[in-house]
Amino acid sequence: QVKVVESGGGLVHPGGSLRLSCAASGMITTINTMAWYRQPPGKERELVAIVNRSGTTNYADSVKGRFTISRETAKNTVHLQMNSLQPGDTAVYYCKITQLYDNQEYWGQGTQVTVSS
């Protein structure tokens, strides 16, 4: 069994920062990609940022220059540093890991991020 747990969400004012963390544990084999998705109220889930085993990153256009994804491979952990937050960033943020050898995906339960004055 694999467990994926996000933390670090909360309420922040516009222009503020938050750091999300996601830790995977249990019967995990080698992790290929680690990613953050978000689902704003009433909208579809969308990819925010992703990092592969080589450390190559990719970001949604809407967060480029504001968000940074980083990975601690030995700890099966991924972080999302979010700066200059805007009300449009309000969403439930989800972590997803994908194993290398079987492409099995595991999702966390999500953490709420609310940007409001």
Q: What would you note in describing this structure?
A:
The structure is a single chain. This protein has 117 residues and is mainly beta. It has strands at 2-7, 10-12, 18-26, 31-39, 46-51, 57-59, 67-72, 77-82, 91-99, 105-107, 111-115. The strands form 2 sheets. Strands 2, 4, 5, 6, 9, 10 and 11 form a 7-stranded mixed sheet that branches. A hairpin with a 4-residue loop joins β7 and β8 (77-82). The chain is globular and about 45 Å long. The model has no long low-confidence stretch (mean pLDDT 96).
What are the low-pLDDT stretches, counting only 5+ consecutive residues below 50? none
Largest sheet: 7 strands, mixed
Our measurement of the CA-to-CA distance between the termini, rounded to an integer number of angstroms, reads 40 Å
Helices and strands: which structural class? Answer: mainly beta
Assign a percent range to the helix content: under 10%
Residue-averaged pLDDT? 96
Spell the H/E element sequence: EEEEEEEEEEE
Beta strand %: over 45%
Specify Rg, calculated over alpha carbons.
14 Å
Helix run count: 0
